[in-house]
Amino acid sequence: MFRSAVPIIFIITSLWASHVGAAVVRPPPLQRSTTPFDGQYISTSADSTAVEWWYLQALASDVEGDNPPANVQILYYQGYPVSDGSTATQSGEPEYYITINGMFANGTVFNFNVPTSTGAITTSGEAVSGKWGDAGEFAVTEDLSSMTANVSAADYGIEASISFVARTQHHFGCNATDDAYFDSAVSSSQSLSTPESLLYKQLGWATTIPGGTADVTLTVNGTKLAFTGTAYHDANWLPAPLNEAVSSWYFLNAAVGPYDMSAVLVQPVNSSLKLNTGFLAKDGVVLQNQCSVVGARNTDISTATPTGSYIDSGLTLPTGFTLSYTLANGDVYSFDLTSQGANPNQAIYHRWIGTATGGPVGGGQETGTTVFEWLNPGMNTYNP
Ligand SMILES: *[C@@H]1O[C@H](CO)[C@@H](O)[C@H](O)[C@H]1NC(C)=O
Ligand SMILES: *[C@@H]1O[C@H](CO)[C@@H](O)[C@H](O)[C@H]1NC(C)=O
Ligand SMILES: *[C@@H]1O[C@H](CO)[C@@H](O)[C@H](O)[C@H]1NC(C)=O
Ligand SMILES: *[C@@H]1O[C@H](CO)[C@@H](O)[C@H](O)[C@H]1NC(C)=O
Ligand SMILES: *[C@@H]1O[C@H](CO)[C@@H](O)[C@H](O)[C@H]1NC(C)=O
Predict the structure, then answer these.
(1) If you take atom 1 of ligand 2, which residue's CA is the nearest one?
(2) Helix runs in the chain, H state only
(3) Which InterPro entries does the record cross-reference, listed alphabetically (predicted)?
(4) Do the Cβ atoms of 280 and 331 come closer than 8 Å?
(5) Would 40 be classed as within a structural domain?
(6) Domain range holding 120?
(7) pLDDT tens readout for residues 157-182
(8) What residues are in contact with ligand 5 under a 6 Å CB criterion?
(9) Which CATH number characterizes residue 128's domain?
(10) Fewest CB within 10 angstroms: 9, 151, 281, 295, which?
(11) What Cα–Cα distance (Å) separates residue 362 from each residue in 105, 280, 334, 358, 359?
């Protein structure tokens, strides 16, 4: 399915120097003034290594025993988030495709990749529609409060119908309404290496549905899977594959009682200028929405600390994360995320599904569900 020298190539939400060399001139990224929030931010094509994708995630609220919540993640792709830098044209792979990953309530995983001839975004004001050949569509409403999505690829064994209603409003990764990048985390006079510059200035992230309710019906190789639960939808883009910018990337996301949250901790390639983001909302009211360089300050930050360990295919991996938020006013919230299963489960990319508990430190504790992932193209080792 995938091109590459890198023998993997699965994917990220949630969450791209280069073969850039000196000669390649890239157009400046589009800014908010010209792009709908959930729209197309950069040009992608089969002849470039640019990548842009729209990610939808749903987790069942009901959990059977120690199984992970039934779940599905659907990614509408233009290009490849992890690659050796060759273009789709050179490697004979499709530029446009839909990836579907998920688990039944009993924990059994399923994965599909559906190539499509096109993958196009159309917009009307802030309303955004995506159409991937005849195999899949999604549509986000003008007020960004809900969306629907379909996959209809019976030949590949997968059909899906999804609808999301947001309970928390859309946001960018830093506390800005007009900047989809992480540049505000670094000073404008700071000199950045190529990977750092890609990460801080060209890797875009727009979260349209940080949390909400999901209604899901799937037919997986003829077996129906339907559930209601929690919803999450974001989009990312970069004019190069992520592994040219990123050595290690943690993305954490959870819905716990009234709280919707996400956090990112990124180690750029050959760099100690680690990026942290934190988003936390309670009943839709934003408590934190920040991006920063790790160590630059002690409040208005989040920390993502891997916990536990297990060994799979010779790799030591965490069984969970402690995700803590220190707000600008000093209040601290802490959540324990625990894995109950992984899919994809690959050396450079794990996406874990599980349960989460937490709340204000010393205050009422809530329970919920979580997705957290480690993209590790740098093959960093975990030493618990
Ligand atoms: C889990 O459920 C799916 C869907 O019903 C079924 O196809 C599969 O065989 C089950 N797996 C196990 C291990 O029971
Ligand atoms: C669906 O069926 C095909 C053909 O039998 C099989 O190769 C594939 O592994 C199945 N996929 C899933 C997720 O069950
Ligand atoms: C999905 O499928 C339904 C039923 O066929 C259709 O009404 C809807 O317009 C489709 N597209 C989206 C984006 O939901
Ligand atoms: C990172 O450092 C290694 C070893 O010095 C070097 O081979 C590699 O080209 C560097 N990568 C980037 C993207 O600068
Ligand atoms: C985000 O920025 C606005 C305006 O600068 C500020 O009022 C608000 O408190 C900030 N929110 C958070 C969660 O930091």
Answers:
(1) 221
(2) 88-91, 194-197
(3) AsqO/PenF-like_C, DA_N
(4) no
(5) yes
(6) 18-375
(7) 999 999 999 999 999 999 999 999 99
(8) 175, 286, 288-290, 328
(9) 2.40.370.10
(10) 295
(11) 33, 17, 10, 10, 8
Question: Relative to the alpha carbon of 128, which ligand is closest?
Answer: 3
**Ligand 2 center to 111 CA (angstroms):** 9
Ligand 2: atom nearest CA of 112 is 13
Total residue count of the chain as it appears in this document: 384
Tokens for 110? Answer: 């399923």
167 domain-assigned? yes
| Ligand that comes closest to the CA of residue 108 | 1
3-state class (DSSP) for residue 68: coil
336-345 residue pLDDT tens: 999 999 999 9
Q: For residue 300, give the ligand nearest its CA.
A: 5
Q: How many angstroms is it from 49 CA to the middle of ligand 1? A: 38
Give the residue, out of 64, 106, 221, 224, with the most ligand 1 atoms within 8 A of its beta carbon, to mutate for a pocket test.
Answer: 106
CA distance linking residue 246 with residue 239, whole number of Å: 13
Which residue has tokens 């050796």? Answer: 84
> How many whole angstroms from 108 Cα to the centroid of ligand 1?
6
In the predicted model, what is the mean pLDDT of residues 80-98? 95
- Does 108 map to a domain? yes
Do the domain assignments include residue 384? Answer: no
Gap between the Cα atoms of 14 and 119, Å rounded: 19
Please give the tally of structural domains in the chain. Answer: 1
DSSP β-bridge partners for residue 39: none
Atom 13 of ligand 3, residue of closest alpha carbon: 138
With b for 16 or more beta-carbon neighbours within 10 A and e for fewer, the 321-335 pattern comes to: bebbbbbeeeeebbb
- How many angstroms separate the CA atoms of 308 and 337, rounded? 11
Of the candidates 234, 325, 188, the one whose C-alpha atom is nearest the C-alpha of residue 52 is 234
pLDDT in tens, 18-32: 222 233 334 455 555
Per-residue pLDDT averaged across 89-95, rounded? 95
